[in-house]
């Protein structure tokens, strides 16, 4: 290298290149999604019903008195959730919403950090800014901020639950997931993994926290029984709007009931096999892989076959997608990532030239995204099972694995 080359081609540490690229892009992505899109808002407004309910709760007025015949966002949190949300109404609606957005952004960045650490990477790794960029480029994060929804806190509770469960801090793991149950119990299927791993103490606080909060909120509420009589039945209805589940999509597109039922059964059976295979062959050899993949299978299937599956629930699949960095991941294939594109992409497919086709694609992309992702995971595990059976190692390996004791992950 000549003297001039030292100035024309200064050396840069290769490990810094990822940081130099990803941090400025990630920071600008966060600023755009929060200060511009989220503050601008949209026609769909999840925050106003929550604020109004919190205000009514603080003033001892009826909370669960909405008209569920309309397609506007409704307040659906139980009394425990109302109690936790009530501080929002201490200040005016606009500042309260902006504060909620700001806290949600901080929570999402913390979630990116926790996911980085969960999979064994240092916060100084390029993985951390890459995850921030990936988070804020998705529809699920963008619409959570734009609609001003609680989902970021659910993801935080889920990641804290997984980390504490792996470290065998069972009671605290139950607190983490129990707080999410107190507001919206979409993580309830994960309790199956607690039962399978025989970490019974988690159930004490997972059930106890929302129960105690409901006991505290009940006498403070004006109409707590209306949540049971009016709101709860609505939660189990399969509506044909803002619903990407198989039943919701089928109702919107007019699909025959028998076909909808057949698809729901098919995905449920695929989930059963996937969960069995993961439990039998991964739980004791790679507990993180078992927990992250099984949680993705449970929640993805729940979103598909349940009564209500909304697109921005997809952020709960982030741990499943993160398993791609580990050997043996069930998402190391292109169909899985095509499915991830469907349920995570912020792209809009409305078309002026091909209006019906664009509308069908736009309204169905989350459903086919979840579907393709679950099918890809199922097929990946099924092919491994068939290969193991062909080579005669199913029973031998299972016996060897079953003789081991589960170990905690630091």
Automatic annotation (TrEMBL):
Signal peptide: none annotated. Pfam families: GT87. InterPro entries: GT87. It is a multi-pass membrane protein. Its main location: membrane. It is found in: Cell membrane. The keyword DNA-binding does not apply. Keywords: Cell membrane, Membrane, Transferase, Transmembrane, Transmembrane helix. The chain crosses the membrane at residues 20-39, 98-120, 149-166, 172-195, 202-220, 258-278, 290-313, 368-386. The keyword Cell membrane applies. Belongs to the glycosyltransferase 87 family. This is DUF2029 domain-containing protein. It comes from Gordonia liuliyuniae.
